[in-house]
Give the backbone structure.
Amino acid sequence: MDPLMAAAARALAAGDPIGALKRVALRDDAPALALRGIAMAQLGDLARAKALLRRAARAFGQKEAVARARCLVAEAEIALVSRDLSWRPTTLEAARATLDAHGDGLNAAHARGLEIRRLLLIGRLDEAERLLARVDTAGLSPALRTSHELAAAGIAMRRIRPKAARAALARAERAAQRAGIPALAAEVERARALLDAPAARLMARGTARVLRLDDVEAVLGSGALVVDACRYVVRTGPAAVPLARRPVLFALAQALGEAWPGDVPRDVLLGRAFGAKLVDDSHRARLRVEIGRLRRALGTLADVRATRSGFALAPRGARTVVVLARPVDEAHAAVLACLADGEAWSSSALALALGVSQRSVQRALDVLAAAGKVQSFGRARARRWMMPPVPDFPTTLLLPAPVPTGQS
C-alpha cells in the first residue's frame, strides 16, 4: 500500500472520513474506490458509498479475493444501516469465510458482528446469541469490541435482563473511549438512553402506569399472571403460553386481564375479539367456541369462568393478574417503534422485522403518513420511511415477536 493509501486507511480507522477523502478523492484505482466508498458511508451518503464499493469490487475482480470480500462486507454494513434487510446474508457469510481463510481476522470478526446485528434487528435472538458466543473477544480492536458489547446489550434488553444490558454497555463505553471515535461513543449513549426509555405500560385493577425495563423484569418475576401485549404471551413466571399466531384468543385474554378481578360482558368481548357491531346468535356461538379454546390454551395457568353477564379470568396459581401493554396506545405502535430508531426503513424491511405481510405494513404507513407521524423519501423500491426519535415513545425492546394478523 502506498503512503497516501496507508494514511487514508488510518484516517478511516480513526473515524476521520474527511481526512481520508483529502488523500484519495481524485483517484479511481480499486483500493482508492473502496476507501472512498467507506468514507462516504461514514459521512452518511449511503447511495454514493454503495456505488463506489460496487465499482471497487468489480475492479478487484476474483483474483483479489480478500479485497473484494472487504468491499462486500462494507456494502453489507451499508445495507444494514439503511435497513435494507433483503441483502442476502449468504453473501456476507461467504465474504466472512474468505477473510477468515486468508487470515484477516479483524474484518472477519466485523462481518460476524454484522450478521449478529441483522439477526438482532429481525428478532432472531437465539441465533444471534449463539453467534455472539462464538466470537473470540480477545483479538478484537476497541471499535469491534464496542460493537460486540452493543450487540450483547441489545440481546440482554430483548431478553429483559437490564442488569446484564447495563454491564455490557459499561464495557462498550470503555471500549469506545479506547477507540477514540466520537460516533461509537454516541451510539453507546443512544443505547443507554434506549435502556432507560419507557418499555411498557402496566394495567392492573383499572389503573395504568409506565414501566422501564427494570420494572418489567420485576413484574415478570413477581409471580403474577401476566398478559403480555408486547409479546403476545400469557405467562406466570417461567411458564408461558404464546398466542402471537392466535390473535382472537389473545384479544380475549387481554380484555379479561384488563377487567380482572371483574368480568367482561359478552357484547364487549365480541367487539374486542371480532369487531362485531351488530351481534347475532352466530357471534355468540363463535364466542363460546373461542372461550373454550382459550381455556384449553391457558391450561394450568388460568381458567375462564362464565358469569351472569359475561366471562372472568381466574388465575390458578397466581394471586393477581396484570396486563403489559405498549407505552403508547397507538394502532400502529409496532411500526412506529421500529421507526423510532431514527433510521430510514423500507416497507419490506419493516415487514420482515415485525413478522407481518408487506401489504399490512404499507397500509399502516399510509395511515401514519396521512396523520403526519411518518414521512417517506424516494420512489418505488428505493422508497424509505422514517421519523425523528421522540421522547417517551415505545422502544423496540419488546418487539421481536410477530404482530398477530391472522385468525385463531
Summary: Residues 333-386 form a domain with the Arc Repressor Mutant, subunit A fold (CATH 1.10.10.10). Residues 388-408 have pLDDT under 50 and may be disordered.
